[in-house]
Amino acid sequence: MIEMFPKRIVFIAILFIAFLLPQLVDAQCAMCRAVLISEEDGRAAEGINDGIVYLMAIPYILLGVLGYFIYRKMK
After folding, report:
1. How far is 72 from 49, CA to CA, in rounded Å?
2. How far apart are CA 42 and CA 50, in angstroms?
3. How would you class 36 by CB atoms within 10 Å of its CB: exposed for 0-12, middle for 13-18, buried for 19 or more?
4. What is the band of 53 on the pLDDT scale with cuts at 50, 70, 90?
5. Is pLDDT above 70 for 44?
6. Would you state the pLDDT for residue 1?
C-alpha cells in the first residue's frame, strides 16, 4: 500500500496540471490577441507567427544535433 501512494500522487499531479495548464496558457495570450485583433495590416501577426516557428524549431534542431553526436560516438 505504501508503494502505491507516490504513484497516486504523481498521477493526481499530472491530471491536475493537464486540466490547469490550458487555462494558464490561455490567460497569457490576452494581450497578444488584443494587439493582433486591433492591427489592420497583419505585420505583427506575421512576426508573432515567425517567433512561434523559431521557438518551436530550435529544440528539435538541438535534439537532432545531440542525437547525431550520440550516434556518431556509439558507432
Report:
1. 35
2. 12
3. middle
4. confident
5. yes
6. 47
**CA–CA dist 21, 31 (Å, integer):** 18
Residue 27 C-alpha cell reads as 490567460
Q: Identify the three-state secondary structure at position 28.
A: helix
Stronger pLDDT, 27 or 46, i.e. the higher one: 46
Q: List the grid coordinates of 32.
A: 497578444
Rounded-to-integer distance, Cα 31 and Cα 45, Å? 13
Higher-confidence position of 18 and 21: 18
Output 3-12 pairs: Cβ under 8 A, ≥24 positions apart.
none
The per-residue pLDDT for range 6-19, each reduced to its tens digit, is: 777 888 888 877 77
CA pair distance 74, 71, nearest whole angstrom? 5
Amino acid at position 29, single letter: C
